[in-house]
Design goal:
The complex is a heterotrimer of chains A (479), B (272) and C (470).
Chain A: H1 2-15, H2 17-57, E1 65-68, E2 88-91, E3 98-101, H3 119-135, H4 140-145, H5 147-152, H6 158-191, H7 198-228, H8 232-261, H9 267-297, H10 305-310, H11 314-360, H12 364-376, H13 380-407, E4 409-414, E5 417-422, H14 444-450, H15 452-474
Chain B: H1 2-16, E1 21-29, E2 35-44, E3 48-54, H2 60-67, E4 75-80, E5 83-84, H3 89-94, E6 96-99, H4 111-121, H5 129-138, H6 143-146, H7 155-169, E7 173-177, H8 185-200, E8 204-209, H9 212-218, E9 221-226, E10 229-235, H10 244-253
Parallel strand pairs in B: 3-8, 3-9, 6-7, 7-8
Antiparallel strand pairs in B: 1-2, 1-4, 4-5, 9-10
Chain C: H1 2-14, H2 17-57, E1 70-73, E2 93-96, E3 104-105, H3 108-111, H4 113-118, H5 123-139, H6 144-149, H7 151-156, H8 162-194, H9 201-229, H10 235-264, H11 270-299, H12 305-353, H13 357-368, H14 373-396, H15 435-465
Antiparallel strand pairs in C: 1-2, 2-3
The chains are: A mainly alpha (479), B alpha/beta (272), C mainly alpha (470).
């Protein structure tokens, strides 16, 4: 019985000209999107390679320390944050700031505000609309036509009818999606054999699986609304409103609401705060050094400080030792305070982001975006991973290179006058090359683990509408 | 002479068998309080055509909906071959075939594809394409139409498809809701002829209609419904000499009250 | 007769649940957009003021004008909160030096790339999505729905002139939908100053024009819907057709046009240009080093130390000027080439995109709010002229030693004990492009929207005159 129902659904959909036209159209859009986005990735990669080569060709110097991150090839499927992702972070001693370097920043126009045209977009927007188009009159249409009564006049259990519709209709949709995706995949593979590697295949596989669930969810939603509305016309209106809210409003609203509910300081003001602390502490240190100098040298003027320091008298030696202690203790204080601020800021940002994500996950569209972009390595996870790695690396550099620099520097202040310079010729650095920076893209298992909620959201949007349809259809008035 | 004998035989033979369709005190009160049916009782035996006459909203369609379990009765029972429909709907539907007022099938499928689907739904999986063609011919659809999509069918053609589906199901009881509405006289006549054939195959046929003349022509029993009640039920014999039209109008206008003789009396079910 | 038809249209639309629900959703979204925009502005304002204050603060206590590290910032524009355009993509901070190319850094999206993916929920976005769908939902069965219901034949059993009928449909549905929408829009407008967004006369004019553009945009989809409704017999067909058209217009064409033009016109990226410049700069730098060596060689026997220093300073000043001039020439050349290509690509993209009324509306809105590329160019222009004033100021303070602070090792190095007075620093003020310029820039797109309206209106009219009412 179920088999016949499913078969009829499939045939009916395939004979529906409008559906076929739209389905073919959607399939056809997929390969070009792959091609275009891959070219985009290639351009970005070329720029990155060139910059990295240039950087590595220079002599390693402590004034130009950078942490690079290569663009990821899977961004061809989901561009995500790639255009805005920094290509490197530059470390600087002063103000303890790391600044981000970018490639794409200046390359845009008003039209770029429209967004990208990648696999994710096609699934999320085009195919979901297709799902809605297919499902909206599955029940209400049959009722309006009168065929529902004809079917129910037979010994067909109601749940079989519903299952038949879900399975039959979705099968057709899914096959369209499958073919389009395969075409897209083959196009990408033709350009770059990395897409055939095991890692890429498993990631793409997951993306495809989640996208399929996403589409099934929209299909189920269409079915659900069709079961509640006795007129197809009403059903499509309701579905469109739902689609707009889920796709376009909730994802954006999430961020906005989180920003309003859990505001954080801006990056700039954090930088400012840190700079302020560093300055103040530096000032204090210089005063202390000045006092020490005055005390040990007996001078009351800052001139001659350098000369004093370089002498080999016991006072001078004592000065050098004690100055180093002072300098290092202030260094530690600076570092600790700065780290405190950083951690607090990151914590705030984390909770804001957490709230924003939680709200966004109310929409299956965002859930899918999160999941797929993270799989592609073009979103939160990658970005956070990068930032964290940079941060950790900074600690290392700070403790080795910068500390070394500081130990060679003299800063003395007295009565508003400041003197600073190097103690002598700079000692050769205790390292051959700056510690190398490597950021590993988040592993597949990590991605899955941190996107559990996204998967839950997608599954919820499949099961709940279906259950609701089930219950509603059992009581559906077929007259 | 022959005709009347046949009818007599038909009916008397039918009365000795168990009824296939039974309405037993069927009452339906809708959610908003309106009374759809009020204690309606009648029977239809194998080889009998029962015609339900009545105005719009009289309760004819409600009755049929109750037999099909599209709605549930507030009181009373609708039984198909002894099976109470609202208790065992699937079992009951195995024994029912239904032709709706406006037969709408799947527009993108051909007649044969539609027949095939509904035959399988009705539990008949072994028909061949030729079987379908035969039935379509039998109901009067020419061959060229068989493989055409239903989108292009006229009303008469669609009604014929509807009855073809009922024939293929080969169920003992057939329900028809205003089957000849909107058909031209010729098509209507052909349709009725098919019903007569089905009757001779000992099917129990319950048909609701506005068409008094056809009803008088073909029905074995005629029931008149008004405002949810069965106000009159007579056999074709009893009505032979009468002006059915006049009777109908009088019942409709309420001139004639429900008289004890005009209401069916409870019949003891035959013990088999 | 016309009034009778018009009346019926109005009642038919406004009285339904469908209207109540969809209108409710639209109203909520519009108000949300206004509110969110105001909050956004707030946040940007605070960031801006914080940055300005800190910029001053970190220069306090310095005693040498040559040491200052000055930055200018782009103040938030009130209308950018409603029509964000590219305001979140461009850099807001510019490090000011007396010479050299200015670069804007630290865009909103740079700070938090995650925002960039979903972009902001602004009024323009709500308009593009919501208004168009609203129009389609009520226009798709304007004609064929009446036919399906049988009321069309019934109406025309009376002496009803066809042109009046279709006119009443168009005007009626337009009024019935636009007028109620004005309510949340006006409430939103009132909300803006209440939430602390400073709106001056010019800003109000801009906002009014944006709303006007929105109304035109709505009109395009409404007339299109009625047109298609008058071209088809079944409302299900017109609906599906309109949905496909909508997907194309709103979602696909704008994106595709950018991509297609990107393929068609090759523009060297900023990175490539930087690469050329840094290559050249390195080349020049080594030449300078050689020049300096030579100079030192020649003058090493000069006993007058102070004179030597002075000569050295002058020589290096000259070298710097030379370097700057050469770099400027190259930069201008490269930039010009790039800009030409970029302009061509932009033109191509825009031409393609303008097939879609959505793109036209977005472009018009961005022009009116001055958050189109005009924002960036006007900011850069203002920065450049400020740079000139700044350079002059620095020269007057004899602190024009940019790029080459001569460190004397081992000697006493004492700064002037006097703190500089930061109030002497010239202030940077940013003036957005003139309102009339903004309106002028938007005229082609507004004109296009108007044209769409006229064409579809005429189409609906003509199609209905020949429509089969049976």
């Amino acid at each position: 019985m179920l088999f016949h129902l499913v078969r009829k659904e499939i045939l009916d959909s395939l004979l529906n000209q409008r559906f076929v036209a739209i389905a073919v159209f959607s399939m056809v859009l997929m390969p070009p999107s792959a091609f275009i986005n891959y070219e985009y990735y290639e351009a970005r990669k070329a720029a990155f390679d060139r910059q990295l080569a240039e950087y590595q060709a220079e002599d390693p110097s402590s004034s130009n320390l950078r942490a690079y991150r290569a663009p990821v090839v899977l961004s061809a499927l989901a561009r995500g944050t790639e255009p805005y992702m920094p290509i490197y972070f530059a470390f600087s001693r002063d103000a303890n700031a790391t600044t981000a370097g970018n490639i794409e920043a200046q390359d845009f126009s008003t039209l770029s505000t429209f967004g990208s045209f990648d696999f994710l977009f096609l699934v999320q927007v085009v195919f979901s609309l297709l799902a809605v188009l297919l499902a909206f009159d599955m029940i209400s249409g049959e009722k309006e036509r009168g065929t529902l009564r004809a079917v129910l006049a037979n010994q067909v259990p109601r749940d079989s009818i519903l299952f038949g519709k879900l399975l039959g209709g979705y099968t057709v949709l899914w096959f369209t999606f499958l073919v389009g995706s395969l075409l897209l995949y083959l196009v990408l593979g033709a350009y770059d054999s990395r897409f055939f590697e095991a890692e890429a295949v498993s990631r793409i596989g997951f993306m495809f699986a989640m996208s399929s669930i996403f589409l099934a969810g929209f299909f189920a939603m269409g079915l659900m609304v069709s079961t509640f509305c006795h007129s197809s016309r009403t059903a499509i209106v309701v579905l469109l409103v739902m689609w707009v809210v889920l796709q376009l409003v909730i994802p954006k609203a999430g961020e906005k609401i989180a920003a309003i509910a859990l505001p954080t300081a801006s990056q700039e003001s954090i930088r400012i705060e840190k700079a302020g602390i560093v300055d103040d502490l530096s000032q204090e240190m210089r005063e202390k050094a000045g006092e020490l100098y005055m005390c040990l040298s007996g001078n009351d003027s800052i001139r001659g400080a350098f000369e004093f320091v370089r002498r080999e008298t016991p006072e001078s030696r004592q000065f050098r030792t004690e100055y180093l202690e002072i300098a290092q203790s202030y260094d530690r204080r600076q570092r600790d305070r700065v780290r405190e601020i950083d951690l607090e800021f990151m914590r705030q940002k984390e909770s804001q982001r957490g709230l924003s994500r939680a709200i966004s996950l109310l929409s299956p569209a965002s859930a899918l975006t999160f999941f797929v972009s993270n799989e592609a390595g073009t979103r939160d996870l990658a970005y956070e991973g990068y930032r964290n790695a940079v941060h950790a690396h900074y600690q290392i550099i700070d403790q080795t290179i910068f500390a070394h620099q500081r130990s060679n520097r003299l800063e003395v202040g007295m009565e508003g006058m400041v003197m600073m310079g190097n103690l002598g010729a700079e000692d050769p650095p205790p390292w051959d090359a700056p510690p190398s920076f490597e950021v590993r893209e988040p592993q597949l298992s990590n991605v899955l683990r941190s996107n559990v909620w996204a998967m839950v959201s997608l599954l919820a949007y499949l099961f709940i509408p279906f259950l609701v349809s089930y219950v509603a259809f059992l009581r559906y008035d077929v007259r | 002479m022959e005709e009347s004998n046949r009818m007599e035989e038909g009916t008397s033979a039918a009365r000795n068998e168990a009824p296939l369709l039974e309405a037993d005190g069927l009452t339906k009160v809708y959610e908003d309080g309106t009374l759809g049916l009020n204690k309606v009782s009648f029977t239809v035996h194998p080889g009998e055509i029962y015609a339900m006459l009545g105005g719009n909203g009289a309760g004819k369609t409600t009755t049929i909906n109750l037999f099909l379990n599209f709605i549930e009765p507030t009181e009373g029972e609708a039984r198909v071959d002894g099976i109470v429909t609202h208790k065992e709907p699937l079992k009951a539907k195995e024994r029912l075939a239904f032709v709706s007022e406006n037969v709408m099938l799947y527009p993108n499928f051909t007649a044969i594809q539609n027949l095939d689907f509904f035959a399988k739904l009705g539990g008949k999986k072994d028909y061949s394409k030729d079987d379908y063609r035969d039935v379509l011919m039998r109901v009067g659809l020419e061959e060229v139409a068989h493989s055409r999509r239903l989108k292009g069918y006229s009303k008469g053609m669609r009604q014929k498809c509807g009855i073809a589906i009922a024939i293929l199901k080969d169920a003992p009881a057939i329900l028809l809701d205003e089957p000849t509405a909107g058909l031209d006289p010729k098509a209507g006549r052909e349709f009725i002829k098919l019903l007569e054939d089905l009757r001779s195959e000992q099917k129990a046929i319950l048909m609701s209609t506005h068409d008094i003349f056809r009803a008088k022509d073909v029905a074995d029993t005629i029931g008149i419904m008004n405002l949810g009640e069965l106000v009159m039920q007579r056999s074709a014999e009893e009505l032979r000499g009468e002006d059915l039209e006049k009777l109908y109008v009088q019942y409709m206008a309420g001139y004639m009250e429900k008289t004890p003789e005009s209401v069916p009396h409870e019949e003891e079910p035959a013990i088999s | 007769m016309f009034k009778l038809l018009l009346d019926k249209e109005l009642k038919e639309i406004v009285g339904t649940t469908k209207f109540a629900v969809t209108f409710g959703v639209c109203a909520v979204l519009i108000l949300l957009a206004f509110y969110v925009g105001a909050r956004n502005y707030d946040v940007s304002r605070q960031e801006y003021e914080g940055a300005v204050v800190e910029n001053m603060r970190q220069m306090e206590g310095l005693t040498d004008w040559g040491e200052i590290d000055h930055r200018i910032f782009l103040p938030p524009q009130p209308l950018a909160a409603l029509v964000s355009g590219i305001s979140n993509d461009i850099g807001r901070t510019i490090d000011i030096e007396s010479r050299g190319e200015l670069r804007a850094e630290d865009s909103r999206f740079n700070e938090d790339p995650i925002f960039a993916v979903f972009r902001f929920l602004d009024l323009e976005f709500i308009f593009t999505i919501v208004l168009s769908l609203f129009a389609i939902l009520f226009g798709y069965d304007a004609i064929n729905g009446e036919k399906e219901r049988g009321t069309l034949a019934l109406s025309f059993a009376n002496p009803v002139p066809r042109d009046q009928y279709v006119l009443a449909k168009l005007v009626g549905s337009f009024l019935a939908l636009v007028v109620p929408l004005m309510i949340p829009i006006l409430i939103g407008c009132v909300m803006l100053p209440l939430l602390g967004v400073p709106m001056d006369g010019d800003s109000w004019i801009r906002l009014a024009m944006v709303i006007f553009a929105g109304v035109l945009y709505f009109g395009v989809f409404l007339t299109l819907s009625v047109f298609i409704s008058a071209m088809t017999q079944h409302s299900s067909s017109s609906f599906l057709m309109l949905l496909v058209v909508w997907i194309f217009m709103v979602l696909i064409i704008p994106r595709a046009s950018v991509l297609i033009s990107g393929q068609a016109v090759d523009v060297p990226s900023v990175d490539q240009i930087d690469y050329e410049k840094s290559k050249y700069s390195r080349q020049l730098f080594s030449e300078r080093m050689n020049g300096m060596q030579e100079f030192i060689q020649e003058n090493r026997n000069n006993d007058d130390h102070a004179q030597f220093m002075a000569d050295m300073q002058e020589f290096m000043g000259q070298q710097q000027d030379d370097f700057d001039a050469k770099m400027l020439v190259l930069t201008e050349q490269l930039n010009e080439q790039r800009n030409n290509k970029a302009a061509r690509r932009q033109k191509f993209a825009l031409a393609l995109a303008r097939i879609s009324p959505t793109a036209s509306f977005s472009l018009a809105a961005a022009d009116l709010a001055s958050t189109s590329l005009a924002l960036r160019s006007s900011y850069m222009d203002a920065a450049n002229s400020y740079q000139a004033a700044f350079a002059q100021f620095m020269q007057s303070k004899n602190a024009d030693t940019q790029g080459f602070r001569f460190m004397r090792h081992g000697d006493d190095e004492v700064e002037e004990p006097e703190e500089i007075d930061l109030r002497e620093l010239p202030a940077f003020t940013y003036e957005p492009p003139d309102v009339s310029d903004a309106i002028g820039a938007s005229l082609p797109d507004l004109g296009l929207l108007l044209l769409f309206n006229i064409v579809f209106f005429a189409g609906a009219f003509v199609a209905f005159l020949k429509y089969d009412v049976r």
